């Protein structure tokens, strides 16, 4: 095993590690100038912004092939800001002791085991902790669902009475009704849901378990799902989840009131790129365990799942269209868990419920063929003899409020078929009316779709699914006439209005007398008329028993989150469909093309963030040998609205490794300490580690007015442009006094870099601490890191520090920096507080 290397991530302004002593004859001038800008400098200000620690770490994480341990600044999962503080090569079970320097303001830091493939297993620990072990303190709650199949699901039945069109299906069917060629129902009725026209969602249904379903052995049926209570989350587990999600999927609101945009690493993850955000069942039980519900809307959400055999997808059908017609099964009633979570803050992590995902067999919407009762003409009886021959007729006009009555056509009339009807009886007085000439069904929109004052119209449509949901109810009046009721409430009946246009209306009551009576006159002279023998309709759903507790191995499993701030029970179907906060979001991005463009809410993720038409709304990834699903239910892209843990191993195929390197450092100089403006950009250097014995030093900016040399580099030249004792303007190829990469309106020039060989034990901190600048415009004055209590005319900052723009003091650019200068104990994470208009974006942050 090689020697332990300590790569200290260090935000330090220090003289103690320098090898050169700097003497300033004009110290009073320097002090007076600094006090004008900073006020009094704390005499104890040693400019150290790190906290040192030593910890023993045991490599006992749940990884099979551990090759090293690390101390990191942050969780590495999907987090490019994570950086190494210290690392050592180890084998499984070995304990090593590491020393580290952590930036002030970072507590806890992260211990990590890393396997030979680069997978991390992390655990946060507080600075000052002396020992870290990854062994769990309690038994894993996931162990039962990882066990072999054996959960009894024999008393589970999907409820046919409660199944319904999905929100996508309802929007599609209604949009198709409106948009079929020749239909001219007012677009104001259709509104925003027109996005779903011809989108192939018609056959999607949502299912849940019946009230008579039951479970045993700790499981129960609640709100149509299978659930059990599990052990609460441990303190260690909560801290680990917080470390993972606070850095990557934070739910916090930024200064500009926006949220973090986390979509880029999600979009490029293996779950999206390789698996279309689907799990692959391993043939064992799969469960889902909510661990955070931070969204204010989550109480209005339900989670559904679906599954399919990849071999069953027809070769002539897209995967998206195949999934659209699959049944979706309710698995988490989010409000039930939210209410019972026991957390005081919605951002807190918890573990309360585990939900099972049974297998109900492979099925989709079935159709049935029904035959008509006969061929008829349908005459309105009317109040006077003049109206006795007015028949319901297709007048080549589908408008909602158009004429639909005409005198009897002669048998040889070219349009006779437009006055002929087939009646399809569905039972319980339900009937469908089919016009033979138009080849369309006749129906009323119903109060579920239009405002009450507009609900008297009817129309001809080609959507049998819609017609079946909106049948007429026909009853015999006992006098040879019939009533045609709008719906099963039988309070509104189809009739002819009193206007000359004889428009069919549905606002008539039985008190209107014979105006609402109809005679069905059989018609037999049908030679030469194209009359269908039957019609295909969606079959009535049937109860379906659970088949197994395990979805078959190799099946793909996906998720749908349904949000309904406007509930179906409290609104009309049209109100439910048009509600801007109602929608279904999927992991498979191709299923989100409509919802990602739905106005006023969901489209916000596209208008204000990086969401694209076919982007995922569910992030799936592995962390600490577990699979997590993180949901985006609304108008941003932070993906922290709900987080669930997957029970079982069916997400183990996601294989995103995180490459973590030692953090780059930025070193900033003032070239004239006695008259410094402290814009900290007269010379700006960057240093990164190339290998254990090689560091790359780059000159990235100069705002100097004088000829200034880079001095004090301790290391052997390897490659690149030599920087030792070189003048900074000359390195950029510009004249002295030319500003480079400090003025926002100027062109950004590329950095000038050189790789130096150093001892393996040399940290970036130590390497930079030796460097100083020589100002030949001030008689060869040398400027390096300040001593305790001196002005900060040289700074070393972690990361790609965004230094102030030309001639803007660091106290102006970073609004709390002065507080720290005046009080060494008041660090206050000052780099987080800046005026964006006064900082220069580091070229390496662009």
Molecular structure report:
The chain is an alpha+beta fold and 846 residues long. It has three domains: 164-228 and 260-365 and 545-647, no CATH class; 369-538, Trefoil (Trefoil (Acidic Fibroblast Growth Factor, subunit A)), CATH 2.80.10.50; 665-845, no CATH class. Helices cover 13% and strands 27% of the residues. The chain has 16 helices and 46 strands. Strands 19, 20, 21, 22, 23, 24, 25, 26, 27 and 30 form a ten-stranded antiparallel β-sheet that branches. Strands 9, 10, 13, 15, 16, 33 and 34 form a seven-stranded mixed β-sheet that branches. β22 and β23 (430-435) form a beta hairpin. The protein is elongated and about 120 Å long. The protein starts with 26 loop residues before the first helix and ends in a 24-residue tail after the last helix.
Count of DSSP-assigned helices = 16
**Beta-strand percentage range:** 25-35%
User: Segments where pLDDT lies below 50 for 5+ residues?
Assistant: 1-19, 141-148, 181-188
* Main beta-sheet strand count, sense and barrel state: 10 strands, antiparallel
Helix-strand category: alpha+beta
Radius of gyration: 36 Å
Mean pLDDT over all positions: 88
Number of domains: 3
* DSSP summary, beta strand count: 46
- Gross morphology: elongated
Helical content stands at 10-25%
Distance between the termini: 39 Å
